[in-house]
What we know:
The structure holds 2 protein chains of 2 kinds. By secondary structure, chain A is of the alpha+beta class. Chain A is built from 19 helices and 9 strands. In chain A, the strands form 3 sheets. In chain A, strands 1-2-7-4-3 form a 5-stranded mixed beta sheet, with helices on both faces.
Amino acid sequence: MAAGAQIIDDLLRPDVNADPHQALARLRELDSIHWSEPHRAWLATRYNDISEAYRNRALSSDRVRPLLAMSKDENEQSAATTRVRELLSQWMVVSDPPQHTRLRRLAAGAFKQQRIVDMNQRIQQLVDDLLDRFIAEGHTDLIEHLAYPLPAIVIAEMLGAPQEDRDRFRHWSDELALVAFGAGGDAREERHERALRGMEEMVAFFRELIELRRREPGDDMLTAMMAGDGSGDELTEDELVAMCALLLFAGHETTTNSIANGIVALLQHPDQLALLREEPDLISSAVEELLRFDGPIKVINRWVTQDTELAGQQIRAGERVYLVLSAANRDSAKFTDPDALDLRRSPNPHIAFGKGIHACLGAQLARLETRIAIGSVVRRLPGLRLAGELSYKESLAARALRRLPVAHDAQPTHR
Amino acid sequence: MKIIADSSRCEGHAQCNIADPDLFPLNEDGYTAITDAGMQVPPDEERQAQQGVSACPVAALRLID
């Protein structure tokens, strides 16, 4: 069929991985619920279909426990893989109701808006320090020196980790990212062995921190989560450890990417960058648009647990569905002139943070960090320009640059 | 102060719930669980109520005194 010849459905093909939007536009237009052989999954690319999918109970988030159960039966997985999967399987992001409901309820209090808002000055201070060093030491990579360290330090502080331990946080989330996002195959065993060492260190650290907070409750998120929701139900120690690991992992690379992708989009649209320089108060609206335009998560994964239907397409239990958020966010059925970057766009009901019961719990924190980081970069680095090639990590889920090489005209000086 | 939710406008973005899960409960589908009766806001939580209302990307929420 002629239409089929135009469709590219291997999102990991290097050219598509580097710039997905054309391929996604064709899928969205020509075959909105498309079976992809390379991915062995259905690709959903329209905003309305993905919105419906988010509340379709036949689409499950429980995608680690089945792996654990499966290979335990077949006695195939190594000890390392088992331990890694056991930790990940407790994450609410890979759970369905009622487990998910309980975990989310017990954690949600720790993310209440006021706690996030109170971090404003501290995050500004951290960004200022990182940019001072970036300028003074003549660095060029805004990921290594700003977008990558910032979110890990922020979550470490919010969890109440002592100052001297905060640097270790950065590397633990890398280990988790390797196992959670990595591709399959033989490399998986090896990756799990390496990751396990880092994870064991992290688990031991969190257990100690939990002990400390039992003796000395603080003002921090961990203490808040340990307090429970007043119903008498509490997170167990294993659940607390798993939750701390999830918060670290979930809030690190994603926030790094929202900052980096946002800066790149601005640099590629100089008129919009100029607008933001002239009107810094546009930053909130700007960040929403940058998240819509090129957000940190391309694809969200669901397992089909019951035969169902999506936009008239029959979907069978056992199959997988990829909700392609970055396609939804460019859907002309929802957004006027969707491929234009318009920092004043309003309303902007993008789904970069997902929707429904699994909508990103850290969204307000992510927004705050991204606004402060991008706002400060625009303010303090005049003449900001790209100074190298952009190379994207090979990833289905994440829109992730390896480096963000820039040049600028700021002089080392007291801010 | 009371929160009024327009369930016909609600699209399930859940941004209100993320701001304050107690003032802005969701149903099992991730849409607002605030009924036509509205949600009463305790006197010391007015700021949180405002934050939640303004977090909605489709303006489905408002406050009345």
